[in-house]
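Good morning C.,

I know you're traveling, so I'll keep this short. The sequence:
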Amino acid sequence: MVREILIWPDPILKEKTRLVEAVDDELRLLVDDMFETMYHAEGVGLAANQIGVSLRLAVVDTSQSEEGGIGPMVLINPEILSMEGSIRFREGCLSIPGEAEEVIRAEKVRFRFRDLDWNLVEMEATGLSAVAIQHECDHLDGKVYVERISSLKRERIRKRMKRLKEARRAQASS
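The tokens, ready to paste straight into the viewer:
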């Protein structure tokens, strides 16, 4: 089922998420919904808190966007272990639709997570995949990419997102 994606600056997006304790049927259904929502919105990653669920859970799929991309992949309780280099990347976010800004991120990341079978997995990613992992881990820590840009640009985007939310509310009530 496609779920509604929260629009920044929703307060839920500012909260640090809770660790996932175990995989059950409810979590598997949530993961299915997250993939469906991400693909419907044409994104490469989605964190659970972007759909209002405060769990340390994300899905990523950069396989169609870059050669050697990763995914589809479920990241349960992900953590970044190390970062190398830097890359300037024009980054967008499903919670900030229609916007994109240049952000400096690590070019290579080593990260660890649990998969749906509760296996502990350690991997490396570069390029867009590394950016996506960092972006989703930021979400799970209650941060969005606009916190990495100038305050002037951030405030302009905040105003546009507030107008978008108001327009969506008005459309839903009519």
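Safe travels,
E.
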